[in-house]
Design a protein that fits this description.
Elements (H helix, E strand, L loop, with lengths): L2 H4 L22 H4 L12 E8 L6 H14 L5 E7 L9 E7 L6 H4 L4 H31 L10 H14 L4 E7 L18 H10 L9 E6 L14 H16 L3 E6 L10
Parallel strand pairs: 1-2, 1-4, 4-5, 5-6
Antiparallel strand pairs: 2-3
């Protein structure tokens, strides 16, 4: 669907900037149709997509990640897109997109609405998902394409602590976090690199430094684990993968979340 055909359906504010609990990059169709009082309850689902910009993903993995997002998002959902890297040279944590899709009316609710306003609402809702796909998709592609191997650090723990604040402020009941990363933490907190590293030892460091957070009961899915973009066809050995998974499973359990999917590198299940 062409953007020129969708401008009349909904307008977007700029999809870059700092975190904001009330930010919504999708104007409500109910507001546009002057039916704000008839707006149904949202789905109660929040999808938070987190892009690690220290890991350039292959085109195949990028397409796979987008497919997971497109299959998951439904009317009434809230969607956020973050990126992080190394906190160096301006590569700080960013919220690229935050949008709330409208829910759909029940048949009984439709019967109580003026036909002219209902027609205006229906036309808007028909285009809203297409507009979301186009605008969120553009931000997603730009964010993923912005990844580089030049970043000296990978601040996953710090970034998850920052995102946790937004999750705790959210009124949603179901929270899904989709992380695009190799999950190789390499920061001043701790590092998962090195043959002699043990998950238990690194977890003790995290505990001693009080680095666990509260992710609001989120279900966490990861795509990109073990991927080596500078060595096509090569991946971290199974010993590394087992250690990384052990670390993050425990980290999320101690941070009020559950690790539901661990793609090595692709994710073999849908977000749920």
């Amino acid at each position: 669907m062409k953007l020129t055909c969708l401008v009349a359906i909904a307008a977007l504010v700029t999809a870059t900037g700092s975190f904001a609990s009330e930010r919504n990059d999708i104007v409500s169709c109910y507001d546009q149709a002057q039916l704000s009082d008839a707006r149904p309850a949202v789905s109660g689902r929040l999808l938070t997509v987190v892009v690690d910009q220290t890991l350039p993903l292959s085109d195949d993995l990028q397409r796979a990640a987008w497919g997971h997002i497109a299959r998951f998002v439904k009317p009434g959902d809230e969607v956020k897109l973050y990126s992080f890297s190394s906190l160096a040279n301006g590569n700080y944590m960013r919220l690229h997109y935050s949008g709330k899709l409208d829910g759909l009316l029940t048949e009984s609710a439709r019967n109580d609405i003026n036909m002219t306003r209902l027609r205006r609402l229906d036309n808007c809702l028909k285009g809203q998902m297409g507009l979301f796909t186009q605008t969120f998709g553009r931000e997603f592609v730009q964010t993923v394409k912005g990844a580089s191997l030049d970043h000296p650090k990978t601040e996953i723990i710090f970034s998850l602590r920052a995102i946790a604040g937004d999750l705790q402020r959210s009124q949603t009941e179901e929270r899904v976090v989709f992380i695009l990363s190799d999950m190789m933490e390499n920061s001043d907190y701790t590092s998962l690199y090195g043959k002699n590293k043990k998950a238990a030892n690194e977890l003790k460091i995290v505990e001693d430094r009080q680095l666990f957070t509260d992710l609001g009961g989120a279900r966490v899915y990861v795509l990109g684990v073990g991927y080596l973009p500078d060595q096509p066809g090569h991946y971290y050995p199974g010993e590394y993968i087992d250690r990384i998974k052990e670390f993050w499973s425990a980290y999320f359990e101690n941070s009020n979340a559950s690790l539901e999917g661990f793609g090595t590198p692709n994710l073999g299940m849908d977000l749920n």
